[in-house]
Design brief:
There is one protein chain. The protein is α/β, with parallel strands linked by helices and 347 residues long. It has 13 helices and 13 strands. The protein has two domains: 174 residues, Glycogen Phosphorylase B (Rossmann fold, 3-Layer(aba) Sandwich); 160 residues, Rossmann fold. The relative contact order is 0.13. Pfam families: Glyco_tran_28_C, Glyco_transf_28.
Length: 347
């Protein structure tokens, strides 16, 4: 049996796809990957030694009328391109992980009567998944979303390094700060100042590509000693080192952090489509594993929240919780797919 795995551009889509692909590979099924050809995709998919097809595809939401017309043309063109790929590779099923690239692939599969399965990482379903959820056999949900038909709450598939748990003894409070692999301007520009009045802390800060000089200068300006890297190769190691994390509220990042029994001060990206990062953050608060700071609030509020987390030792209580939704997500997804395909004689 051969699966078409569709995920592109961001780690939030790609890493869950890789975790599911790992699980599929254990059963000796074949894999074909489809994406946009970005470096993060190529790096993630390379270990499978599988065929990797590339489509030119852009997002639709928030674009100008001219760009939306271009995307519609891309969808129509790519449907026919994907039909050829499906027939050539003799695909048995498609699994999509969000992003507009999944739309032409899903439509092509639907036209050829190939079963479609999708996974939504966020607490709000994205535009592409909303479209495909109408024709998908099973809609897998990384976070709980109400009123989605044919849905299974699977959790977000995470890499095996996020299965572990440990707690390091330290006389200091260890804070890991990250704005993701690309960095986040708000976090890079405001955290050095926000931490300047605190004592007895250790800080590690992932600032993103091309930001390291500016961030180092800000920490120096405010007299804060910090370890600063543009990117940490092993984020699980940094999370486990920390007492708590300060980050954006991407679904996969929060799934990884909470699976390692760490809480977070979350600063949702205010421009995220459908405000999905805020909804993601709310789900972590409901688990008793974090607090939210809105970017539009003052720097004084940010400082106050960090001080309260440390003085009240909120992070100690966060460590007592554990989000168990994600550890077996890849297995839940693949087992449900196998059951469906077996019932419908697709194996």
């Amino acid at each position: 049996m051969k699966f078409l795995i569709v995920a592109a551009k961001t780690g939030g889509h790609i890493f869950p796809a890789v975790a599911v692909a790992d699980e599929i590979k254990k059963n000796n099924f074949e894999l074909v990957f489809l994406g946009t050809g970005s470096s993060i995709e190529e790096g993630a998919y390379d270990k499978f030694s599988s065929v990797f097809y590339k489509l030119q595809m852009e997002g639709f939401r928030g674009k100008s009328l001219l760009k939306k017309l271009k995307v519609i043309f891309q969808v129509l063109f790519n449907i026919f391109k994907v039909i050829k790929i499906i027939k050539k590779e003799k695909i048995n099923a498609m699994i999509g992980f969000g992003g507009f690239i999944t739309v032409p692939v899903g439509i092509a599969c639907y036209l050829l009567n190939i079963p479609i399965f999708i996974h939504e990482q966020n607490a709000v379903m994205g535009s592409a998944n909303k479209i495909l959820s109408k024709i998908s056999k099973i809609n897998f949900l990384g976070m709980r979303i109400k009123n989605i038909k044919n849905s299974v709450h699977s959790g977000n598939p995470i890499r095996t390094e996020f299965f572990q748990s440990s707690d390091l003894d330290s006389e200091h409070v260890n804070i890991y700060i990250t704005g993701g692999s690309q960095g986040a301007d708000y976090i890079n520009e405001n955290l050095p100042k926000a931490l300047s009045k605190l004592t007895n802390i250790n800080v590690k800060h992932q600032c993103g590509k091309n930001n390291i000089t500016k961030v180092r200068e800000l920490y120096k300006k405010y007299g804060v000693t910090a370890e600063i890297y543009d990117f940490y190769e092993n984020p699980a190691e940094q999370i486990l080192w920390s007492d708590f994390v300060i980050s954006r509220a991407g679904a996969l990042s929060l799934s990884e952090i909470s699976s390692l029994q760490r809480g977070a001060l979350m600063i949702p990206l205010p421009t995220a489509i459908d405000n999905h990062q805020f909804e993601n953050a709310k789900s972590i608060v409901e688990l008793g594993m974090g607090e939210i700071h809105l970017q539009n609030d003052s720097i004084e509020k940010l400082i106050s929240k960090i001080e309260n987390i440390i003085s009240n030792q909120s992070y100690v209580n966060w460590k007592k919780q554990r989000n168990k939704d994600h550890k077996y997500a890849a297995k839940v997804i693949t087992e449900n797919i196998y059951k469906f395909l077996n019932r419908n004689e697709k194996v």
